[in-house]
Amino acid sequence: MEKEFNIDVPLHLRGIKLSQYQQWIKIMNKYEENGIDDEKYLKAKMLQVFCALPIEDTHKIPLHSFDGVVQHLGELFKTDTPLQVRFSMEDPKGEKLELGMIPELAEMTFGEYVDLDTYINDWDNMHKAMAVLFRQVVIDYKGAYEIAEYEGTGKLASLMLDMPLDIVFGAINFMKRLATVLVKASLHSSEKEMTKALQQAYKLTSEESTDGTQQFTVWLMEKQLESMKQRS
Questions:
Q1: Domain termination site, one of 22, 49, 76
Q2: Whether 48 and 144 share a structural domain
Q3: pTM listed for this prediction
Q4: What are the residues whose beta carbons fall under 8 Å from the beta carbon of 145, sequence distance 6 or more?
Q5: Which domain holds residue 140?
Q6: How many angstroms separate the CA atoms of 103 and 145, rounded?
Q7: Which of 169, 155, 137 is CA-nearest to residue 17?
Q8: Are strands 86-90 and 144-147 parallel, antiparallel or unpaired?
Q9: Pair 7, 47: CB distance under 8 Å
Q10: I want to staple 129 with a disulfide (CB 3.0 to 4.6 A). Which of 55, 101, 119, 183 is the partner?
């Protein structure tokens, strides 16, 4: 008779913390760097990280349950993660914090830009990147909001370790798509092609849920177009 075994399995990416995924990335990097060829090892580590299960307990799980959980976790990472510009978290004192993405990216300060550019491509520091993009909402009026002034990542970086992974993915994916549009646009040599890229940027940002990102994209694209006209 199989012994009953309870596992705390996240039902959605919302149930996985950024810190857990950072831990998983380190395991995957080590796995690849050392040329480990042991699929069972990787599956056990997956349960250890995302289900907070001691590694020795992974060996006690009935095989059908073990495989089912691994498959479920794999499917979670295939789900869509749209951009979410606001979300709530609890601070260390248990108080609810309302956090919002920079509402006007076109107004990003030089300090914000430098820090975001430094951290956004490094998973070890992704919690710091999120502390640049998201801060506490201090004014909320009819759907519009303002966030706290940027004072570095020190205040929120540790809190962002608990940030839900779906929101992290949504923010990263959006920034990557935005960067792709801008890079492609910068490679166009004609004003006609730049105008076409500008229209694509409008389409991309209009599908997202923040007017600030649209303003930021269009502002950059129009600056590039203006520069091309001057050169002509």
A1: 76
A2: no
A3: 0.78
A4: 86, 100, 103, 137, 139
A5: 86-231
A6: 7
A7: 169
A8: unpaired
A9: yes
A10: 119
Which long-range contacts does 207-213 make (Cβ < 8 Å, 24+ apart)? 208/82, 208/83, 208/174, 209/82, 209/83, 209/84, 209/85, 210/83, 210/85, 210/101, 210/103, 211/103, 212/101, 212/102, 212/103, 212/104, 212/105, 212/106, 213/83, 213/105, 213/174, 213/178
CA distances from 190 to 82, 86, 225, 228, 230 (A): 33, 38, 9, 8, 13
Whether residues 123 and 227 share a domain: the answer is yes
Number of domains composing the chain = 2
> How confident is the model over 127-169, as pLDDT tens digits?
999 999 999 999 888 778 899 999 999 889 999 999 999 999 9
Does residue 122 lie within any of the structural domains? yes
98 domain residue, yes or no: yes
Q: Where does a domain end: 76, 109, 126?
A: 76
Task: Please say whether the beta carbons of 81 and 15 come within 8 A.
Answer: no
DSSP summary character for residue 148: P
Cα distance between residue 71 and residue 58, in whole Å: 15
Arithmetic mean of pLDDT over the chain: 80
Domain match, 109 and 156 both? yes
Domain match, 65 and 154 both: no
Give 103's contacts (C-beta < 8 A, 6+ positions apart): 85, 144, 145, 146, 147, 210, 211, 212
DSSP label at residue 135: E
